[in-house]
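Changelog-adjacent note: as of this version, every example in the card shows the full chain rather than a window. The one below runs 216 residues end to end.
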Amino acid sequence: MNAVAGVGFGLRSRREVKLWDLANTSKPLGVWQKEASGSVLMPHMDHDNNILYLFGKGDGSVEWLTIGGTKVIKSIGIYRNSEPQKGGCWVPKAGLDVMECEAARFMKLTNKSLIPLSFIVPRKAKQTFQEDIFQPTYGGIPNLTMEEYWAGEDREIKRMSLDPKDRQTGHTVAKLEVKMSYKELEGECEKLRARVQELEAKLGIESTGVTEEKEA
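Full-length structure tokens:
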């Protein structure tokens, strides 16, 4: 669907989602409304499954809608909780537990904690990879360089398989390098000073005057 969606407020401060066809924006394809509130809806779109997730600052709920079909915008579920959220973010598809049919995970930020909310599709066969839910998705690798983009080039996004058996991200594996602590650095400096003095004594030259700097 070549369309664009937007969230905002309608009459009487009712929150709503509107969907427009990019070829004809004179009127929306569909409108979905939620209860009136001063909280702005924050959208997150799952382009692989055409599911739009919505949450609002100060709300305790997270709702998800389907985009497309006979009913252009339709609510298919809602998570309710009395504890309001200050904000949150969504885990990338590569970080989901696909073998447990985890379709999305929202990290709900509250005043006291960060709560992971998993959205799991109820499937009986969780031992096999569910290809209809987890299609090849964006792999986090840019498909264009900056020079190619400014030159007006266009290219399909680079996708990755979410199947654990053949998952390849294309990312370079990061290596963790443990840095020395301040105490360890001080010890190394002392050894180097001692070595410099030893070499100067052997060469019969005066001290270079390398001393430890003191704070004024």
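Structural remarks: The longest strand covers residues 14-21.
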